[in-house]
Write a structure and sequence with these properties.
The chain is α+β, with helices and mostly antiparallel strands. It has four domains: about 5-200 and about 340-460, FAD/NAD(P)-binding domain; about 200-335, Beta Barrel (Elongation Factor Tu (Ef-tu), domain 3), CATH 2.40.30; about 480-560, Arc Repressor Mutant, subunit A; about 580-630, GidA associated domain, C-terminal subdomain (DNA polymerase, domain 1), CATH 1.10.150. The strands form six sheets. Strands 1, 2, 6, 7, 8, 9 and 20 form a seven-stranded mixed beta sheet that branches. It has a six-stranded antiparallel beta sheet with strand order 14-15-16-17-13-18, with no helix packed on it. The protein has a four-stranded antiparallel beta sheet with strand order 11-10-19-12, with no helix packed on it. Helix 1 (about 15-25) runs parallel beside helix 9 and helix 2 packs parallel to helix 11 (about 440-455). The longest helix is centred in the last third of the chain and has 25 residues, at about 470-490. The protein is globular.
Length: about 625
C-alpha cells in the first residue's frame, strides 16, 4: 500500500511541520503522519510567534529555509519589536497571529510541496530492524516503511488533561492521547519522564470592557520575520493589559485544595518561566497583582486568549476569579484553562543531530525532548529533518555551533546538560549574543544551507540555482555588500564642527574641536544613523539608495564593532577545542585519570568533539585536560 519513504515524520505540530519541510526541501520523499489533518500546525497555546530569544529562533528557521517566519508574516494581526530600549543583541521580534489562518497557511504550504505525502492515523510504534528505524506501525495495523523516522509527538504521549479534580486522557483539548510509543521505547532501553504544561481559559471578547484596560498597539510601521518578500501588515489589532488583585487571588486560593498541582495528582515538572496563575500567587505571595495580556485570536473571531492566567483549577473557580479582573466583570468563558501531563525522553539520549544513541535513523524533536514553545519545537524539527536526510546519504551531520545560532545553543544545552523541567530559550543562555542578533540571521545561516543544498543539486523540488534558496543567497550577498559600502563611506567622509556641533549639543554629546571621520561620531552613545541623515544632506543623499535592512545592518556593525570583535576572538579560542574530534567508538571508561562521573556522562552522551565534552555537566577542566593529552594535544 505504501512505498518506502526516505523520512517518516510522526506528528504535525510545529516540530513535525518544519522537519517535513527540511527533509523534503533537500530531496527526501517524506510521509507526514498525524492523528488529525484538521489540526496541522495548531497553535495549541497562545496565538503568537516570537518574543525574547524566540523571535531570533524564528528568524534563524527562516534563514535556513523553514516556513515558520513566512507563515507568521502571512497571518499576523500585530507586530512588535521587543527590548528596543536595550542593545541590538536583545531586540526580539514578536507577532500576534490569527490562529485559524496560521494553521491553514501551514497546511497550504505543506500540501504544495511535491515531496510530502500525508497519512491521518495514530502511529502506535516504530519498526526497528537491526538497530535501525525502518518505518512505523499504525493503529489500523498498517506498516509504513521508511529509512528514517522523526518523532515529534508534542504533549500527546500518554497525555492526561487536568481540570480541578477531573482528569481524562488527551493530548490537547478534544483530542485523544497517543498510546504505545512510550512503552516500546522503554522496552528498547530508553529512559522517559513526565512533564506538565498548561493553558489559560478562552473568553468571549464581546463581553469584555476594554476601556478598563491598558491598550497595547503594534509597531508603526510594523516589521516582519521572513527575509523573503512576504507582505507587510497594513492594519493591526490591538492587545490589552489588565491585572489581577488580592480579591482575585483569594478566590483562586479557595480552589487550591482541588488543584491537581497542590494535591499531588500531577507528577510532571511544569515550566519555571511560564507558571500557572495558582503557582504564581503561591510562590509570590507578597505580590498584590499579576499582569494579564488580553490577546485577540484572529481577525474574524471574538475569541480572546488570557495570557498569564494559565490554570488547572476547577472551572467555576477560574470563572469566578476572572469576573473580578478589571474589564472582565461580565466575561463569558469559551472554555476553561487546563493542565496537561505527558511523557518526554531526557535529551541526553541524543546526539547533536537529534538522532538517538540507541536506534540509528530515529530522531526526536520538540516537546518529546523536554522543551516548551512553538519556536523551540520548530527549530528542533528543522535540525532533525536536515540530519535525517544527511544520514540517509552518509553525509557529514549538520550541527550548528553555539556561536552560530540560538538553535545551536538550544540543541547543545539539551544534549549536554539535559533538562528536568520544560526548557525555554532566553537570550541569557547564549554567551555570544551580540553575534546572534535577529537582524543577521540570514547572513549567519543562509550560506550554510546554500552550500548544503548544492551537495544534492536540489532544493524545494527545483535545482538549487532555480530555487528560492538561490534568491535568498542573492539577498544576503546584496545586504553584505551594501553594509560594507556604507561602512566604507562612514570611515572615509569627514565632518566639521560647524556641521555637527549644534546636533551634538542637543544630544548632550561633547562638541567637535576639529574635523573627524563620521564613523567616530556614530560610535557615540545616543547618536543614530537616522538623525545624522537629517542634519547632513550629503550623507542622506548617499544613503537614500539603500534599504532599511541594509542601513540597520551597517549601523549595528559600526556601533558595536568592538563588542563583536571581542566575541569573535572568544569564538576562535573555543573553536580550537571544537576542532579536536573524538572517534565515535572511543572508550571513555579506559580513562582512569578522570572522575567516575565524567566517565559515565561522557559514555552516555558520546560527545563528538573536545569542545562538546567540555560543556557536559560534571566534566571538569581537569577532565578535559586528560582528554586532550590522550588525543595527543
Amino acid at each position: 500500500m505504501f512505498p518506502e519513504y526516505d523520512v517518516i515524520v510522526v506528528g504535525a505540530g510545529h516540530a513535525g511541520c518544519e522537519a517535513a519541510v527540511a527533509a523534503a526541501n533537500l530531496g527526501s520523499k517524506v510521509m507526514l503522519a498525524t492523528m488529525n489533518m484538521q489540526t496541522i500546525a495548531q497553535m495549541s497555546c497562545n496565538p503568537a510567534m516570537g518574543g525574547v530569544a524566540k523571535g531570533q529562533i524564528v528568524r534563524e528557521i527562516d534563514a535556513l529555509g523553514g516556513y515558520s517566519g513566512i507563515v507568521t508574516d502571512h497571518t499576523m494581526v500585530q507586530f512588535r519589536m521587543l527590548n528596543r530600549s536595550k542593545g541590538p543583541a536583545m531586540w526580539s521580534p514578536r507577532a500576534q497571529n490569527d490562529r485559524m489562518l496560521f494553521a491553514a497557511k501551514w497546511r497550504q504550504m505543506l500540501e504544495a510541496h511535491p515531496n510530502i505525502d500525508f497519512w491521518q492515523e495514530m502511529v502506535t510504534g516504530i519498526i526497528v530492524k537491526d538497530g535501525r528505524a525502518r518505518g512505523v506501525y499504525t493503529g489500523l495495523g498498517l506498516e509504513i516503511p521508511g529509512k528514517a523516522v522523526i518523532l515529534t509527538n508534542g504533549t500527546f504521549l500518554n497525555g492526561i488533561i487536568h481540570i480541578g479534580e477531573k482528569q481524562f486522557g488527551g493530548g490537547r483539548a478534544g483530542e485523544r492521547a497517543a498510546k504505545g510509543i512510550t512503552e516500546q521505547l522503554q522496552s528498547l532501553g530508553f529512559e522517559s519522564g513526565r512533564m506538565k504544561t498548561g493553558t489559560p481559559p478562552r473568553l468571549d471578547g464581546r463581553t469584555l470592557d476594554y476601556d478598563k484596560m491598558e491598550i497595547q498597539e503594534g509597531d508603526d510601521p510594523p516589521g516582519k520575520f521572513s527575509f523573503t518578500d512576504t507582505p507587510r501588515l497594513e492594519k493591526q489589532l490591538p492587545c490589552h493589559i489588565t491585572y489581577t488583585s488580592p480579591e482575585v487571588h483569594d478566590i483562586l486560593k479557595s480552589g487550591f485544595d482541588q488543584s491537581p498541582m497542590f494535591n499531588g495528582r500531577i507528577q510532571g515538572q511544569g515550566p519555571r518561566y511560564c507558571p500557572s496563575i495558582e503557582d504564581k500567587i503561591d510562590r509570590f505571595a507578597d505580590r498584590e497583582r499579576h499582569q494579564l495580556f488580553v490577546e485577540p485570536e484572529g481577525w474574524n473571531t471574538c475569541e480572546v486568549y488570557v495570557n498569564g492566567f494559565s490554570s488547572s483549577l476547577p472551572e467555576d473557580v477560574q470563572y469566578n476569579a476572572l469576573r473580578k479582573v478589571p474589564g472582565f466583570e461580565n466575561a463569558k468563558m469559551f472554555r476553561p484553562g487546563y493542565a496537561i501531563e505527558y511523557d518526554y525522553f531526557p535529551p541526553m539520549q541524543l546526539s547533536l543531530t537529534l538522532e538517538t544513541h540507541l536506534v540509528k535513523n530515529l530522531f526526536f524533536a520538540g516537546q518529546i525532548n523536554g522543551t516548551t514553545g512553538y519556536e523551540e519545537a520548530g527549530c528542533q524539527g528543522l535540525i532533525a529533518g536536515i540530519n535525517a536526510h544527511l544520514a540517509l546519504h552518509e553525509e557529514e551531520p549538520f550541527v550548528l555551533k553555539r556561536s552560530e545560532a540560538y538553535m545551536g545553543v538550544l540543541v547543545d544545552d539539551l544534549v549536554n546538560k539535559g533538562t528536568e523541567e520544560p526548557y525555554r530559550m532566553f537570550t541569557s543562555r547564549a554567551e555570544y549574543r551580540i553575534l546572534l542578533r535577529q537582524d543577521n540571521a540570514d547572513s549567519r545561516l543562509t550560506p550554510l544551507m546554500y552550500e548544503l543544498a548544492k551537495k544534492f543539486g536540489t532544493w524545494g523540488g527545483k535545482t538549487v540555482d532555480e530555487s528560492e534558496l538561490a534568491v535568498r543567497m542573492r539577498i544576503v550577498e546584496e545586504k553584505e555588500n551594501a553594509a560594507s559600502e556604507i561602512e566604507k563611506f562612514f570611515r572615509e567622509i569627514s565632518v566639521s564642527p560647524d556641521q555637527l556641533n549644534g546636533y551634538l549639543e542637543s544630544k548632550g554629546s561633547s562638541p567637535l574641536r576639529h574635523p573627524v571621520k563620521l564613523h567616530g561620531v556614530l560610535l557615540r552613545p545616543h547618536i543614530t544613523l537616522a538623525e545624522l541623515r537629517e542634519v547632513l544632506p550629503e550623507v542622506d543623499a548617499f544613503l537614500d539608495r539603500f534599504s532599511e535592512s541594509h542601513l540597520n545592518e551597517a549601523e549595528v556593525r559600526m556601533k558595536y564593532e568592538g563588542y563583536i570583535k571581542k566575541e569573535q576572538e572568544l569564538v576562535e579560542k573555543m573553536n580550537r577545542l571544537e576542532a579536536v574530534r573524538i572517534h565515535e567508538d572511543f572508550d571513555f571508561h579506559q580513562l582512569k585519570a578522570i572522575s567516575k562521573e565524567a566517565r559515565e556522562k561522557l559514555s552516555r552522551i558520546r560527545p563528538r568533539t573536545i569542545g562538546q565534552a567540555s560543556r557536559i555537566s560534571g566534566v571538569t577542566p581537569a577532565d578535559v585536560s586528560v582528554l586532550l593529552v590522550h588525543m595527543g594535544r
